[in-house]
Amino acid sequence: MENEVEKPRNRLERMFQWAELPEREDIYTWKGTTKWGNHDLYPIDKSERTYGWMGYFTIWFSQGISISSVTLGSAYVAYGLSAGETLGAVLGGTIIASAIAWLCARPGMDYHIGYTVWNRVGFGMRGTYIPMGVVALGGMVFAGIQAYYGGQAAAIVLSAIFPTFHSMENTLPESAAITTKNLIGMIVYTAIFLVILWFTPPHKLKRWLYPSALIAALVISSPGHLRLVRASGLSGLSNA
Questions:
Q1: Taking the model in full, what pTM does it have?
Q2: Residue 13 lies inside a defined structural domain of this protein
Q3: Shortest CA distance to 237 belongs to which of 87, 69, 94?
Q4: Residue 44 has what pLDDT?
């Protein structure tokens, strides 16, 4: 590796050189950083396989009680489904999605490789950019939805701490589909999220996983319990 002559970079490569993953020397990464791989793409090092069944269960549990998942019910009801039909649709969709997720995750369980590498089996080295692009677009949409809801949560916290923020006048037009407070909250949420993402690698996030899942479960279940009490239970749910 030390005797290899580095090929001159073209303009596009130089432009995005800042985003390249630096080569690591603390773990074995086969061929270091090349055009087709780096330590994020090679089989995960044993020292970084820190998640057990409880960790993965908590991840999926957290996804299931996230704001995006919880709002599915109200979205389906708004489209005209009854409460019972909504429960059936969400449950059925979850079962199908879980089966697909398990099948897609099996190569990672056996060979400790990620989605981007496993795609090369079916799409080839260059063709894999197609599913990667699809996933990237979906990830941007999901991240945007999460940032919007996270911004609303941050705005509520800021309003509770600072009375002046609570009474802040909205300076954005109605066509913006967001208020000034929620926009500031989204910026604050995104800044906190990026800082955590930058300084905490995924294999070290487990320390925050369990408390965050517990807090999220309490936050999500409390309004649901309150609504059930006010509605006198689940009676008439199928006709709702």
A1: 0.69
A2: yes
A3: 87
A4: 82
